[in-house]
């Protein structure tokens, strides 16, 4: 700002103070501020000046006043300090006055008071936004890494949605090209609020990333909190529009009367001149020591070309390798030394037609996650958690949350269903013993996973891969959870064993498979009570459609009558 502009601003500030003294009369002035579009340079010389005047023990509590100052409209809102502070602290008037502290403002008087109120407001708004994130992404809450910019842009855009005419005064601020020297003062308040919340032990905040504490996550999952936050949106919209409409109209009239016609068709997303910031760009998922933005919308071909180092998509080969309820693709490309491979999984929402039979199938035994977004989140969460605990799982290469895609490494090897079939067909005792030992190791890993309170959900043998180096990998965690019914995991695995066995298979062979798995499970600390539950009608009813009655009864009885002695056999 040049010297002439500084003089003009100082002169206008003094005139504003004079007007505010007239309005205040005998009431004490606590603070005077102008909002960001009240700049005094030539570019904004026609914009209305919007002033907030805060008075102690002011009667009447709230008034508005309009004046003309050097050819510019000036709109003054005078508010009692008690009302203003409660609007800041508890959304008393839908933040009609408090909202002026979340956009760029200039303090003419009472800078310290306004700054303190700004931090109080931003602390509350940050907590509300974090609670909403937990409600919207409960499975990802522990993995979220949130940049401070998220809170600033999300708060501003929410107010634009509630009162669209605000877009005309905030649109430049909300674009990616907006000068940082104007953004930083607003962002600085959020950073200060985050540091105070960290000091209060609500969050962790380091290197500009917010991560959530487990206690906070648990409390935020209470539906009452979400409803309470949702309830604040209506008064925000009503009061913001009531107290803002007059000053907004003054500003619009003073620039172009024709702009009024555009209000009826207003949609900031359709404005081709503006590239608005997407707040979700600053909300990241932490998976396998990598960070992926919630706003990431990379498609299958674009990522595959980049990761597999292919310029032309014609060199990519797509094979559908599974997915009645999801699309699962193996993407390969020839290279000089060997083929490169990745797995891509697309998480679809299961429509009522698709998931209704599945829900009936598991009725009374397990709740099935239906929404694609929820299943994607569980896949990320449990994969990352098990990886951190030392289990072998496919590495997540990238997550496109917007398109519900997960890109994962391809594990070379054979799934466990193939091992079971080989065991049945093999005539060599030594080979059979090796297969049984592998099955016992799988049982041990099940027990270890259950000991850290994880239920895998979909434990079919084909979701266990024996790698080329004999490492055992677990796949498919979209139905996994913390806590849950461990007996379900055992039931799915054991009853699906019977799905791969010929009706004419020797009973002793089937029992040796069951006992190998159970001995590993119980030997490594698995709960014998969970094993015995597998034999109950709760599970036999569900899996009766998959296997022959003979094997169903055989597996059921083996689980119901299991002895702790099997662990030492």
Characterise the protein shown here.
It is a single chain. By secondary structure, the protein is of the alpha+beta class. The chain contains 20 helices and 20 strands. It has three domains: about 5-280, Beta Polymerase, domain 2 (2-Layer Sandwich), CATH 3.30.460.10; about 295-410, Phosphorylase Kinase, domain 1, CATH 3.30.200.20; about 415-569, Transferase(Phosphotransferase), domain 1, CATH 1.10.510. The strands form five sheets. Strands 3-4-2-1-5 form a five-stranded mixed β-sheet, sandwiched between helices. A five-stranded antiparallel β-sheet has the order 7-8-6-9-10. Strands 11-12-13-15-14 form a five-stranded antiparallel β-sheet, sandwiched between helices. Helix 15 packs parallel to helix 17 (about 505-525). Residues about 40, about 250-265 and about 350-360 have low confidence and may be disordered.
Task: Please specify the SSE layout and strand pairing.
Layout: H1 3-24, E1 28-35, E2 49-56, E3 62-69, E4 72-80, H2 81-90, E5 105-109, H3 111-136, E6 144-147, H4 148-162, H5 167-170, H6 180-199, E7 203-206, E8 209-212, H7 214-220, H8 223-231, H9 233-255, H10 259-263, E9 283-287, E10 290-293, H11 300-307, E11 317-322, E12 327-333, E13 340-346, H12 352-361, H13 372-388, E14 396-400, E15 405-409, E16 413-415, H14 416-425, H15 429-451, E17 454-455, E18 464-467, E19 472-474, E20 481-482, H16 486-497, H17 507-523, H18 528-533, H19 537-543, H20 549-560
Parallel strand pairs: 2-4
Antiparallel strand pairs: 1-2, 1-5, 3-4, 6-8, 6-9, 7-8, 9-10, 11-12, 12-13, 13-15, 14-15, 16-18, 17-20, 18-19
Helix pairs in contact: 2-3, 3-6, 3-8, 4-6, 14-15, 15-17, 17-20
